[in-house]
Amino acid sequence: MELALIRHGQTDWNLDERVQGRTDIPLNETGREQARTAAELIRADGADWDLILSSPLQRARETAEIIAEATAVPFGGVVDGLIEQNFGEGEGMVVAEFYDRWPNRDFPGGEHDDELGARGVRTLDEIVGAHPSGTRVLAVSHGSLIRGTIARLMRTPYKQVPRLDNTSISLFAHDEDWRVVTIGGVSVAEAIPTTV
After folding, report:
1. Residue 8 appears among annotated catalytic residues
2. pLDDT in tens, 117-135
3. 3-state class of 69 per DSSP?
4. What is the pTM for the complete model shown?
5. pLDDT, tens digit, for every residue of 22-61?
6. Domains present along the chain, CATH in parentheses
7. From 17, 62, 84, 112, active-site residue
8. 17 belongs to the catalytic site
C-alpha cells in the first residue's frame, strides 16, 4: 500500500501562527486555493489514487473534499485517528509563546509527542487493515500528527522532523512495515540529512 498524508490548507490561525490543535478552525480562502493547487499537482502526477480520507476537523475535511472533487478520487469519509494533536493548555497560543513556555513540548493537559506518534502509526495500520492490498490512499491530516508519525517511524525526535507547509504531501509505503518515502514532498535525506 502507498499512503500520502497531506497537511490541510491554511486557516486564519495558521496565518496568525497560533497553535490550533483540536480547535475546529475553518480554511480561509488561501487554504481553499492551496487545496485546489494540491489537486492540480496530484492530477498532473498521473498516479492512480483509490480514495481520499480525512481527519474529522473541518479544515482537513474541506481540503479533502476540494481535492476529491478536483481529482475525481472518491471521498471515503473521516478517520478519527487522523485528528490533530491535543495541545491542552497550549491551544490558541501564539506558537512563539508556546515554545517560550514549553521548549520541550511538555505542555499540560494534552497529548504528548510519544502518544501522538504511536496514535499516528496505529491509524496508518487501521487504514491498511480496512482496505484491500495495493490500495493507494490520500489522507488529509495535520502538521503535528504527520510529523509525529514520521518521528515514530524513523525513531527520531519530533523536533528533528521539519515543519510542513500547508497542503504539502508526505508519502509512506507499506510492505511488511511502514517506510517514509518523502517528507513534505522532498526526499527523507533532504528533509532530515542526518538520517543518511
Report:
1. yes
2. 999 999 999 999 999 999 9
3. helix
4. 0.96
5. 999 999 999 999 999 999 999 998 889 999 999 999 999 9
6. 2-195 (3.40.50.1240)
7. 84
8. no
